Amino acid sequence: MNVSQIEKELKAFINKHSVQFQHLAVRETALLELGVLTMATEHYRLAGYTVTVENAINGLFAAKLSSRGYPYNFSWFRCVKGAELYEIHSNLSVMGGHKDEAVYVVDVAVVTGDDQVPKSKPKQKWVALDNKALATFAEVKKLVVYPMLLAQSSGLCTKSLLQG
Question: Superkingdom of this entry's organism (predicted)?
């Protein structure tokens, strides 16, 4: 076995595909965020809410996968059951719960009501959701994704959904 030749070939392969390697970690996190977004909407659907996609762009769900951009440029989910209404947004800026003027971006935000997040460009710059309008949220942490992690995550979410 020619170790130096193998090393040379590996370096060439890594250099050739460096962009894919650099973006792999970002894609894993985005996939997990989309998974949690899906689980949140499924929770409301299973609880009897009518769930619809809002602000689809050319018929497609435009996911907000980073802190950049305004929420009205992306899609979200609307969950309605009688007089109850929630919106589920991805990567939404939210004011902190303390009086420190901090703004946090939560991966999945469940918002009470339908007038809390602008649906189009507002007259005044929109900064963040009022903390009191946040019903709940989910954060995704960057982990090495492997089959058992996904199975455990799905199993835990399914269990909690079934238990109420």
Answer: Bacteria
DSSP conformation class of 149: H
For the entire predicted model, the pTM comes to 0.72
In Å, what is the CA distance from 148 to each residue of 72, 95, 140, 155? 36, 35, 17, 10
Q: How far is CA 63 from CA 7, 31, 60, 84, 127, in A?
A: 40, 11, 9, 24, 19
DSSP state of 17: T
Average pLDDT over residues 28-40: 86
Could you list the residue range(s) of the whole structural domain that residue 112 is in? Answer: 3-158
In angstroms, the CA 5 to CA 104 distance is 49
The answer to whether residue 149 sits within a structural domain is yes
User: Does residue 35 surpass a pLDDT of 50?
Assistant: yes
Domains in the chain, number: 1
Give the residue among 154, 140, 86, 150 at the shortest CA–CA distance from 117: 86
**% of the chain at pLDDT higher than 70:** 73
pLDDT at 126: 84
90: left (phi over 0), alpha (psi -120 to 50) or beta: beta
